[in-house]
Amino acid sequence: MSASENEHLVDFTDFTDTGSSRKSNGRRSNSANGKSTVDGHKRHRKKSNKHFQHKKQKLNIDFVLAAKNFDRYDDLTEKKRELDYLRKKYFHNLKKKRLKISKPFMSQDEKTYFWHVHAPFDVLADTAEDLNVRLPTVKNDIVVMLWYEKLTKRILEWWNKKNPFLVHNSYFSKPESYFADNFDKDRVEEFHNGNNPEKMFSPTERSRIVAYILESTKYGDNDDEIGKDGLLEKGVLTAAYPIHDGLLEPNENEPLLNNRQKLSREWASFGQIFKYQPIEGIKEYFGVKIAFYFAWIGFYTTWLVPASLIGLIFFFFGCLSNLWFIPVQEICNAEKPFFMCPLCDKVCSYYFLHNTSCTYSKMTHCFDNDGTPIFAVFISIWSVFYLEYWKRQQWSLSYEWHTMDFCEEEVVRPQYTASAKKFKQNPITRKMEPIASKKEQMLKIAGEASVVLFFIALVIAALIGVIVYRAVIFGILIAADGRLRKNSKLFVTGTAATINLIVINVLKLVYRKLALIMTEWENPRTRTSYEKSFTLKMFWFQFCNMFSSVFYVAFFKSEFFVGYPGNYRRFGTKRSRLEGCSEQGCFLELCIQLVILMGGQQLLGNFVEIFWPYLQKKYNRWRNNIKSDENMTVWEADYQLAEQEELQLFWEYQEVVLQYGFVTMFVAAFPLAPLIALITNLIEIRIDAINMIKAYRRPIAYKSEGIGVWYDILVTLTTIAVLVNGFVLSLTSEFIPRLVYKYRYSPDMTLTGYVEWSLSKFNISDFSPDESPLNMPEIEILQTHVFKRVNKTVCRYPGFHVNNESHEFSMVHWYLMTIRLMFAFLFQWIVSAAGRILAWIIPDRPRSLDLKIKRQEFLAKEALRNYKIKTGKRMPEAENVSEEEEESDTSESKRNSDQANGTTPETGNPSNRDNTDNAVDQDIRIKIPDRSASTMETTFLIDPEKKPTSPNYSFEYLTQML
């Protein structure tokens, strides 16, 4: 290769020529002008940039394709020939679609080829029309100040100057707002930057359009051999990605920071953890779909602030109220001890309540206090407000980002096309498209349902295993002496929750692989339907997996399921009994379970997110023998980064949505859940930002209207949360028993005597030989102090039972159960009704946004009208009308009325065109009988430029029907 050829890349018609006349590994060097080549392929220059030379033109790199260099191996000739054929075929088809592709560049380690892909403006414009891409037109001239905005304008201006959470002197200023319209190549000058084609399409828009072309281009002879994904699966390509704006660190050749470096400093840094995110900068760099995720998690985190503060207030109130809370004082009073029944068979002895439950009861009251129901109601209302205002925010963002009416035509997945046995004509495009058999789809859904049910059964089996562990370990520890016995409940709860967390993640990894296999087997038609199918299967399984143990502790550890002295539920050959709740219920145990699952899952997820991309990057550099970035181009540096999987955003959404479930569903048991969520989200945002900027390749900037199916899942969780909180308050909390005792059974309307009232009596003589304790160590120790005042013939246990041999539930128990269930359903009904009323009152879209939408529609219609007048396709309105013309129009109108049943007007009559123009302005639709079928009608929207497809009708015939 000569120096001149080496300076400028030759025509891309030769890009697949890999030089078959190489010797050995085919390597040779040419140092002309300081450039080096390998096998006739140009090595990258030391200066990294985002352009490449093509026919002496400097073109943007819109996409990079990478493939292995098989020329280094002599034993892969047949495979190389096959892969080369597919690559050549694919590149040839890309050439037919007018994409510009560079000659291959060689990597530093000579193992990889890189091709640069560029889309000329004409290609971008044509594809943008096909995809209904909306581009900005004119500046948004609507300024709406609502009454509360006028009142708070000065306050907000002052606050923004002092706001510590706002990034002052930001790299990303607030962009100007524009109206948008579907791109029309014939009206290009009406769009923003219409006179500068290079700036009309943003880099993210360019990469998205090029990605669409790459995904819809065939690479083989069969119809199912289509798209870059198929080439990646076959190993023809090793990577396909848009490049980052540049290297992470600025150099002397680039005095100005690029967008990647700006985001790295202002967003992808823990130093900015308490600052607002530059959402507009994220949107411009990563696209709308990713920007919606970060906008949503940022919005959610902001709303967690008031919930966290109020949760802290109720928590500290509960802890402080221990000083005067009567039941806690009664439990901790050693002068009036309660002689309690043993917690296990034989090896466990009788004990005094104040010795084992004083600290436990104080900790429980921090969470289960008089403020708990109020906080549960608050969170239920908070969740409604949060979802409604996010919906408004989502509408506003989708309008500002021009995706409100996003209806991009998706490519049918190659896997769907390959498996389809039937083809059907698309009524819109008139093309034959693959269609799956309904019977086959139903069979697949049934098969998937059986697999999902099987894995849910595995979740239940794992839960039973944890329950058995709790029972066995608790029995061992309670028989020990010292601290092990005293803290046995806390130890068993903590270790069981940790084991459960490990089991949850193991099952998640297994089911993740299986869910991908099932979704591939189901074979959805498009990427959107693929993501939705996978999301629903994976999320609801993980929901059952994550919350099963929490539901068990909250609702299935009561005496109704565990039993009571003389009637314990037993299992196994040794007749072990299930572990029950403490005298204060399962509230504290539920809190511990929530802390370990919620906090532990977040910490584990953050650990994986931090180290996994880092390890991938290190592995890629080791595999490719990369020791320094000094002479590395931006596209090769990006190649060393970790590749984002197709469903990367799913895992991010799932992590936060499951956290939202903890915050809303069990907040009655754990008011600190919003605070933990707030802290973990602040960390999560920065970890995700660092990974996006520094650890991952730049993703394709896909568009979306919002957060998609996740909003529906959030609404479902909010509905479930109201019911769950109602049952937690009624069944798990001591709120209802304390309320009933205070206002029905207490002689002085206080909680004095509540502990005595809530404990039943059991005759020690009624214990069977297998249950009766072998010794009484605590009683022997305390014999000289309290034991003399204790009735040694009976022991106490929590619950409401009759004091006879049957020990059945008493009437108080059933009365309490009735009140509990009534409260649960009333709570659910009242709070849900209040939430629905609030959701109905709050408009889905801001009033100012409605005005902007109407203004945009008006401008779009005006632009189309002016364009037709400009091109002569529509008659302009007359500026001055003389008296003679008015008289002529009156006479013409009279003649037309006399000829109501007469002949067709002449073709050149301008009144027909005027009538049609008015019909266009009013969006009039007319129904016309189809002459080819007596019973059929066709509906047409009157538009002079969109004449009916039926040859039986002329345009004049249609206009006459007006």
Automatic annotation (TrEMBL):
Membrane-spanning parts: 290-317, 371-389, 451-478, 490-511, 534-555, 660-687, 708-729, 814-842
Domain Anoctamin transmembrane, chain residue ranges per copy: 282-856
Keywords of the record: Cell membrane, Glycoprotein, Membrane, Transmembrane, Transmembrane helix
Acidic residues composition-biased segments: 880-890
Compositionally biased tracts (Low complexity): 19-36
Compositional bias (Polar residues): 898-919
Cell location: Cell membrane; Membrane
Biased composition (Basic residues): 41-55
Region (Disordered): 14-55, 874-950
GO cellular component, one term: plasma membrane
Family note: Belongs to the anoctamin family.
Full protein name: Anoctamin
